[in-house]
Amino acid sequence: MSKYITTPIYYVNGEAHIGHAYTTFIADTFARYHRLKGEDTFFLTGTDEHGQKIEESAQKHNKPTQEFADEISATFKNLWDEFGISYDKFIRTTDEEHKRGVQKAFEVMYNKGDIYKDFYEGHYCVSCETFFPETQLVDGEFCPDCGRTTSVVKEESYFFKLSNYEEKLLQYYEEHPEFIMPKSRANEVINFVKGGLRDLSVTRTSFTWGVKMPESIHDDKHVMYVWLDALLNYVTALGYGGDEAKMNYWPADVHFVGKDILRFHAIYWPAFLMSLDLPLPKHIGAHGWWTRDGEKMSKSKGNVVHPKEVADAYGVENLRYFMLREVPFGQDGDFSQRAFIDRINSELSNDLGNLLNRIIGMSGKYSNFVIDSKDVTKYHAKELRAMDEILDSLDTYIQKLQPHRYLEELWRVFAIGNGVIQEYEPWVKMKNNQEDEALATVALVANVLARAAIMLHPVMPETTKIIADALSFEINTQSFKKLVQEKALLDTFTIKKVPPLFPRIDEPLMEEAPKAEPNPPKKEEKKVQKESTKEQDNLIEIGQFFETSLKVGTVVEAEEVPKSKKLLKLQVDLGEEKPRQVVAGIKEFYSPADLLNTQVCVVANLKPAKLMGMISEGMLLAAKDEDGLCLVRPEKPKKAGTPIG
Ligand code: MSP
What we know:
By secondary structure, this protein is of the alpha/beta class. The protein is 41% helix and 18% strand. Among the domains are: 336-494, Orthogonal Bundle (Isoleucyl-tRNA Synthetase, Domain 1), CATH 1.10.730; 548-644, CATH 2.40.50.140. The model is unreliable at 520-534 (pLDDT under 50). The chain binds 5'-O-[(L-methionyl)-sulphamoyl]adenosine.
């Protein structure tokens, strides 16, 4: 049976951060797990190099775009090589074979009638490389995904008939409930599709850094939309449109992606594949976002976690273990050195590292380092059964994409190892002339450690090699089959002394991140932060609340903003020298007449913002649900400017 595992391909507009490392570690772990089981596995990663964002980044760095892409792509590849990532192919979307494959796919979809030419007018977010209809923008201007300013774009474009696939997609989700994992993420995709799919613009004319159109279409003005180009990497890497020798790996078993790009993978990608008459991937595994010390990471805050820095300080395998164990797959996670150190000291050093030390210590004292499993079954059948039951269950956590549960369960095996030493006290037995029993316990623990090391190998490949070496065996498919599946015991061997695997850590090994600013988050960061932190995890001090100045205001003028579906322009008296101008996205729910001479509640100390070219010097409090929006107003008239709080 073959397996195909992928990471997203990373944009070459900056260096790798901890989020990239996380997906790559997970995918690498799964690929290694399948190889360990003897499955023919193909693991793909690479870089996404086209599009306006990359073109602009190269310009900022005063470099030709290709040269810039080459440099950044190499930093990803070198980092993964340094980290021992076991990819089978590192694809670049500037590879000729990839470009040919994309052109071929475009041609197939076009000839099928799924692509047509028209005009596009919409709001484009360069950062997300995505168009949004005006109705989806925040405050008529900002990207609903990342919060950045969008720009209005009108251009000729080829469109993919995404709307044709609405029903087929919904049917597919229904028939394949495990397609989107974790399942909790499926609903947001299904609701999005149920909300109606618009045809997707799949070419651009406003810049040139993209895959050219197929020659058969003769339309050089256009280059391909970067997401069409990027998603196709999963099949062009196997030779789609060229030498298709590796297409036997298709369909992919899992595309690992971050939750922010789930929609592209769970809606657009399956629709493209349906159009190409190719089977759909078995699972899309969407993971959550990492914060640092509870804060969203950003270059401007200077709190981005650089995986190389962490790996240099703590070791890359400790980092792999921490990231996979710390966060239930699919949920957001937080990187803090404290939590990291705690796991290294308690789980890696105490539970695992000590177990090896104790076997070395005891076997050295009792049997000149020789370990013999001959009496293990006689004295420890119960413990062997308990261990095997856990080991047999581990595969289901791989099937369910739950590496954190896999590790949690595996640690119960180490607990068995530590528990028997406590319970059977071999040192007492040695004194009481029960040498056979004492040595059987030591040998049991060596077997526990051996089997657990095999199963830990996909997460910590190098560390487990050292353990296996100390126990005189090699971790590979044969030993997996023999020791884990067939449950054979280790042959008699002489244990090797090794230095402690996980020295305890007392103090953080890296500088702490700069402290968070006391100011409320900027508008740009608001949306993402709201998503990535749960309220109860984000309690504030009363002082923080009072940093917001809320006041009662009287609307003294109100008018519609021409050409805007959402905005009204108000003059609001806050008891100051002159009224403040507030531009509010409430036009769908209130007319100017509804507001004139009424009172509203205003956030009065927001930095002024520009909406459709107009200054807005405050924000109205409002409540919104499925039935619409209503303003929050004082119950009785109050003097303009009265503070609220
Ligand atoms: N190029 C696209 C993917 C195309 S796949 C056909 C892209 N690239 S990216 O470099 O911006 O992001 C790659 C991955 O990194 C995404 O899965 C994203 O979720 C992940 N992360 C970026 N920041 C992250 C965190 N702070 N935490 C966890 N993962 C995050 O999107």
